Amino acid sequence: MMLTMERHWRDTLIVAMIPKPSADLPSLQALDRSDFWRRFDGAAPIHLRWGVRLASFVCVVVVPLILGHVRGLGSMEPGPKDAAVQRMTEMPLVGDLMELAKLVACLAYFDHASVQGVVRGQAS
Fold this sequence. Notes:
Elements: H1 4-17, H2 34-43, H3 46-66, H4 78-89, H5 94-111, H6 113-119
């Protein structure tokens, strides 16, 4: 069972991976991700679920602390947060966790009906 704090870290990480793309598309943060996570937790292989948990903890809590951001990725302003995300993508091993987070963030984002409507050229 995933703890509430782990869910927060997971959401913080995937939201940091996809900033608001344009005026036509909503930000990932603005979307309800509960249906996606319910399906993900029920269908994703255990190694993927645990990989996302590891990526969330390492990239939201541990690495930001190492980089000098005492309160973690979730409390950072957009500019420093983007810089920290970019820096983490270039770090050995951490970059692999960031790639996993990016993949899951894209799945969560493009899973949403409002995003699908815009991408497919349909009004939402």
